[in-house]
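Hi R.,

As promised, here are both runs. First protein below:
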Amino acid sequence: MSVILLDDRFAQLMPVLNAIDSCLVIGHIDPDADCIGSMLAVTWALRRLGKRCDPVSSDPIPANCAFLPGVDEIMRAEDVDIESYQVLIVVDCEPDRTGLALPLLEQFESVINIDHHITNMNTAPLAWVDPTAAATGELVYALISRLGLQLNRDAAVMLYTAIAGDTGFFRYSNTTARAMRIAADLIGCGVQPDVISRHLNETHSWAYMQLVRQALSTLSRTPDGKVAWIFISKDMLDVAGMQWNETDSLVQYPRMLAGIEVALILREIGPNEIRVGLRSQTYVDVSRIAGVFGGGGHQRAAGCTIRLPYQEALTALLHEIKVALASPGAVAWGD
């Protein structure tokens, strides 16, 4: 394993990791590939050290991550006996975004936070947050290296999936030379990029494709062509038999339009409750827009939940995006 250490801020974690006997590993609500891959890789590492370590999720595992080694061991938050674990390790988000585990945080002796989101405010007692990392999987890779563990193929698949997921298979602006070097090392451990790509991006059900067709019929944009969006209603999801968190990739369609700076996907998940995914191309920081509505994420990819009817939620979003586009160096559409 090639050692690529990002910094020494996680040195404070080592005594805690060495001392604990049991821990839970949890990620954020609506988990994605980076979240699931990082959770599983941390679990793999600590079990190699002889710790009792179990992964847990507040929300269902996305179907495109079902191939990952160990994914069937991820427990539901409501089924976990919290009192039987010493430490909670939160990966790929701040503790406030862990969903059902949030009210239970104070029951743990220690809470460790490993994340790369710029919106993470380092509120955990032991927080290692590095926004320069392309994915939390990079940080877990560095941690495993510092622990002196030799990666096997299963762990490499977990980490590669995490990093590839958050970089759009090394197409997004957060792709760095460091991410590519780590990916090369993981491929050397037996990862097959084509296989992982098929699982994450290229295998969909008939119901999913019918949903894509319906969603594309809602494709809209602002008069200046700088913002585009699609909408998925609760009825669309129910007819397709799908969960809203299985539709994140559909934001790629408004993002493909020439001249687009901000792309949105709005999903109706309940009465007056809209889950929003935001992407930007070059200069709008969508994490700030998501933050206005209590969400967060990255400069180029973020999410939030708006508790308003669809049209009101869309109007509120477009207002905030218009403000962002009108910032120095940007051009907003006319009133």
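And here is the second one, sequence first, then its structure tokens:
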Amino acid sequence: MKNLKIIFSLVLIAVFLSSCGNVYKLKLNSPKQIKGSQKFSVTVEEQGQKPIDSIRYYLDGNKLSSNKDIDVSEMRLGTHAISATVFYGEKQKKLTNTIILLADKSPEIYSYTIVNEYPHDEKAFTQGLEYHNGFLYESTGQRGKSTLRKVEITTGKVLQKTAIDKKYFGEGMTIFNNKIFMLTWQNKIGFIYNLETFKKEKDFYYAESKEGWGLTHNENKLIKSDGTKKIWFLNGETGKEESFIEAYTNDRLVKELNELEFINGKIYANVWQRNSIIIINPKTGAVEGIADLKGLQKKSGQKGSDKVLNGIAYDAENDRLFVTGKNWNKLFEIKLHKKQ
């Protein structure tokens, strides 16, 4: 009987609180996932039909002029925060929700043809690859075995090499403003090297991005992947993260983005354990193309999930695209062809 009295008392308290309190809900008047070209609206509902004095709506912390027909066509794809501050009497309450923006259309599919095959050091656990002035520059991984190297394309001969401190697992690299920038995996530190001597000149740090995976650059920013769906844009002087995009197709996110290359205004990315390259719009994150490079791993004499494609380099002057992989014995020059 005593337990029943306690339960009855708790029920009365709950009823009293619900009758006295204001219960608000921030409602999306659309599916949670929408295409980037679509507009959406958002409203606040009060379950007890009690008066609301005013409401302020926000998208990613920026105040909206209206809660109807919100245009997101110029925004990056991925997750965005929707919030509202409800004012009633002398009180206020903040409500939150999220919406996910997807690409408008499915990616184009590409196949490939092999133009040339060249030798590649089978001991190189390739993490980064870049073409510069007739040579390939390559970073390799594995703790205690990580290196930075300059390679002759046609022979695969390593012309210059420096070892990375054994406590670091080397990751992606790129050449920017005549300096070599190289990442480490889990230490949140990168290194800047003299292009000619390979002498380390300074360090840089990344605090917001999860880890160091792939690295490339556009005209004025370093572009970095961290093993998630995010691609980060870094200050070219300090290496500090300044913004990011998220990779999405028209129906899903793409994560585990790895080695990167910036080609003709688009980001080309390897995906960990996938023998393919995805082509990403650097403004929105939309996956605009997928190149299926199945068959190259077998030609390289490798099997296994950790010996996959990972290495993209582009010779812009001669329109040559090079790819290789982790411990592959071949470097391939390929041409991509859009499937009809």
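A quick note on the second one: Residues 87 and 282 are 39 Å apart (CA to CA). Let me know what you think.

Best,
J.
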